[in-house]
What we know:
Layout: H1 3-17, H2 35-38, H3 41-58, H4 65-91, E1 96-97, H5 99-111, H6 117-129, H7 144-153, H8 167-170, H9 173-180, H10 182-202, H11 205-228, H12 249-254, H13 261-266, H14 282-292, E2 296-297, H15 304-323, E3 337-338, H16 340-349, E4 354-357, E5 360-363, H17 375-379, H18 387-390, H19 399-406, E6 409-413
Parallel strand pairs: 3-6
Antiparallel strand pairs: 1-2, 4-5, 5-6
Transmembrane segments: 41-60, 72-89, 182-203
Keywords: Electron transport, Fatty acid biosynthesis, Fatty acid metabolism, Heme, Iron, Lipid biosynthesis, Lipid metabolism, Membrane, Metal-binding, Oxidoreductase, Transmembrane, Transmembrane helix, Transport
Family: Belongs to the fatty acid desaturase type 1 family.
Amino acid sequence: MSTCRYSKCVSHIASRSGLPSRVHITETPITMQNWYKHVNWWGVVLTILVPLYACVQAVWIPLQWKTATLSLVYYFVTGFGVTAGYHRLWSHTSYQASNCLKIFLALGGAGAGEGSIRWWARNHRAHHRYTDTNLDPYSVNKGLLYSHMGWLIMKQNPKRIGRVDISDLNEDPIVVWQHQNYLPVVICMALLLPTILSGLLWGDWAGGFIYAGILRMALVHQATFCVNSLAHWLGDQPFDAGKSSRDHFLTALLALGEGYHNFHHEFPSDYRNATKWYQYDPTKWVIRIWEYLGLAYDVKQFHPDEVRKRQIQQKHAILAEEAAQLDWGVPLSRLPVLEWEEYVEKAETTGRSLIAIAGIVHDVTEFSKSHPGGLLMLKSVIGKDATAAFNGGVYSHSRVAHNVLATMRVASVRGGCEVEIWKKHQHSDAEPSPICQ
């Protein structure tokens, strides 16, 4: 019986018998007595203590140029195992790969020491489905440091991570093999292989272990962690401001092109992170090369029109948000409604300079002294319909004039324009006709 099924059985028996079910440590507050139980010590060892040990050893072990070259090359190999393999192939199925390429990426990803494909992709799919919520395993809303590596250092309750479908991963024999044999695979690929290559080829066993092994792996870790933290904190949001994901060249430079994260969260199944030719995305480039060589196929890419639509929609949203901060005048729906006679009477008796334009009454009293056309021009249309004069009859006013005028709204006229005054009882069988001057 699997561990998961066994735990469910125990919980069920406990509930039926009245015994309290086991509470996960994350459900209890951190205290001086239990803090060490909240710590994921494997995460601490792998991401902090082992790199610190390597940094200390690097003080006495000189870095040979051949070992430095191997470290750089292997950094890209294992990095692509994560970005092109774990991320774009298995997490998002943005392309399909031959078994040969899959094996290469599975081994390279193991060399990065970031967990198995199945574990990594499961968390990442939850991150996309529940971005910025409590079900997001590395939500930036829990803090920048937490999203960077705190989620690995502190224990997480598996029940608190959003549910996702990984049936396709469970049916992939390469994914299953790597998951079941992860510990020996990661030891061989992350540490033994670079050590043996450096030792056998140029005799630098210690340098291969420290530089091409541990420190190279630590750098890959930090680069990947930046996608969870920095890419949700630094940069622009040209596609969607409703989520924390952002685009920035620095994150892309650190994470082999994964830094154009706002685009990625909007178009996760696209094989690219960067859409412009000049944007740094080496993962995109190697996928294209593999496609040309026949190793990758069914490479997915959203139509440029769809990408452009989302950019335009986001620009509209930004402009609408900026516009909402400005004074555009009282909304038309909130203006009191006057009959034409009421408008004329108020203009004559209140001493205010009221002018009707396009069915809206404007109080231009304060503005009349600075009117470019002169005070007399305004006085001639007080209490009248100045629509034609404002829109070209006298002068065709600019959009700025329209905006300024909107801030002077005080009422609207029922019917929108002047109504001819008919003598009482005269032509009682006829309807009064509107006359817009």
